[in-house]
Amino acid sequence: MDVAALTIDRIREDLAARRYSAAELATAALEFAQAENPKTNAYLHFCPERAMAAARRVDERLARGEDPGPLGGVPVAVKDVILTKDVRTTCASRLLEKYVPPYDATAVARLEEAGAVILGKTNCDEFAMGSSNENSAFGPVRNPVDPERVPGGSSGGSAAAVAQGTAVAALGSDTGGSIRQPASFCGVVGVTPTYGRVSRYGLTAFASSLDHVGPLARNVRDSARLLQVIAGRDPMDSTSAFAPVPDYLAGLDEDIRGLKIGLPKEYFQDLATETGDLVAAAVETLKGLGCEIREVSLPTTEYAVPCYYVICTAEASSNLARYDGVRYTIRAEDAESLIDMYRKTRGRGFGAECKRRIMLGTYVLSAGYYDAYYLKAQRVRTLISRDFQAAFEQVDALVAPVSPFPAFKLGEKIDDPLEMYLSDIYTITGDLAGIPCMSVPCGRTADGLPVGLQILTNHFQEPLMFRIAAAYERAAA
User: Fold this and answer.
1) Residue 385 catalytic?
2) 154: which of 125, 211, 352, 431 fits an S-S bond (Cβ 3.0–4.6 Å)?
3) Of 178, 223, 423, 439, which residue is the catalytic one?
4) Per the confidence metrics, is the pTM higher than 0.90?
């Protein structure tokens, strides 16, 4: 079997026809992933015992004539900020390099209930803080399309694993574009669902009001199937939505004639030429499918980057205070006092980007600055959300670039944090507003670098988003 070419539907068909067993597929997938991983460093660690146990459960269901589940036998990877019981979860940080969680994240538990086979945990920026996957304490991930370039961040390992073929699908997390940007850079599909659509229980918190769990896959149908499994209310997460989960697969084959598609004019400035050309060609494809294209404005976009980096760093400063050497992190054993232990543990354990964001967040939350920075940023966030609501009164969906440019070279931006932060300009607004958005491949540059088309819809309108993405994917094939 060609593991790198498999899709969820193909695996379901093959298992039903007894072309191979789930155990045989898991064995082949693990061997292939372990052999290929040195090329990209996409995985931090594998969990073969857990994978084989899950595969055997699928085979037992099949032997009894039962449905193996919507993801029966499918090899899946999980970003290493999402907890997995009895399997190390490091968040790509030295602080947690030995941490083994006592429970599964809700999204992970739902994957395995649906028959998925979890192969291992994928590399990422430390505590999901970064846009290039160069902030991992265990080395950067290399883009499988071009190993001299970044895969995007922070879910770079998950995107790279899917693009490389070492996972059929993967879970990532998105706080400011950390699913969509890597998906764009690696040429796969990445979905950021509505805030609250997927439980955050078991997701290591970076910025709690912005964090999402979402799927990465090779095509739109697979991404919809994954979201179908992990979405839904969870009593363990008070922010998870009560809204019922629709059938995301039901409308994938419908046409999109007559839909009004908005182009936010602020998102088409300062684009690299080839990126702009590919996105423009994708817009023409949508127009050819019968969509009505309109220009719209999201005027608060210019304030999105400072707004986002005030809110996310403030929440990160609060969330990361728990990593102090007392409970589940490494501990500085040479400390002379409790305060010295805190200082040395955190100083040695956190990488440069985490320290930078903790310091920024502590500053904006400090006495005398809370109103001037954090409270004002929350007001700007409200304005950004209102911009989207006003736009959705005029159009059914928005399309835009994912990034101003394709994947850049390793080391190119790492020493310029501001330039790195500005690369998120087209993705952070969706997270600030809490709306669903996704990246679907829309072509490659002359150098063969993938570019993604971003599709954004109103809250809980994932079915419409998937419908547009699937129609474009068929037309562009």
Assistant:
1) no
2) 125
3) 178
4) yes
